[in-house]
Amino acid sequence: QVQLVESGGGLVQTGGSLTLSCAASGRAVNNYDMAWFRRAPGKEREFVAAVARSSALRSYSDSVKGRFTISKDNAKNTVYLQMNSLKPEDTAVYYCAAGGVAGRERSYPYWGQGTQVTVSS
């Protein structure tokens, strides 16, 4: 089993940047495919980005492709989401997840508690 704790959220202006971190404990992140999801106010949770356990494969939703980058630091047992050129529509609670198949929310058995990102216009 793995426990996940997100951090790094906050308030940022349109066009700004934030880096979210997801610290894992219990098992090493290189044992899992890792992903970020988000839930905007009044909407369902959606896939944002994923990285395979080998880090060789990464995938992104169309809405963040070219602006967000997912990465893993196995030595720190941490997954990151670098978010650039932020837009108001990126406002959401961001969740880290482990152990599933890229993009398939229900396949992930392990979730963090989420971190709020608010982008002001």
Fold and architecture overview:
This protein is mainly beta and 121 residues long. Helix content is 0%, strand content 49%. It is built from no helices and eleven strands. The protein has strands at residues 3-7, 10-13, 18-25, 34-39, 46-51, 58-60, 68-73, 78-83, 92-98, 110-111, 115-120. Strands 2, 4, 5, 6, 9, 10 and 11 form a seven-stranded mixed beta sheet that branches. A hairpin with a 6-residue loop joins strand 4 (34-39) and strand 5. The mean pLDDT is 94.
> What is the percent of helical residues?
under 10%
Q: What would the principal axes of the Cα set say about the shape?
A: globular
Q: Strand content of the residues, in percent? A: over 45%
- Low-confidence runs (pLDDT<50, min 5 residues)? none
Question: For the terminal residues, how far apart are their CA atoms?
Answer: 40 Å
Element-level helix/strand string: EEEEEEEEEEE
Determine the number of helices (DSSP H or I, runs of at least 4 residues): 0
Biggest β-sheet description: 7 strands, mixed
Please tell me how large the radius of gyration is: 13 Å
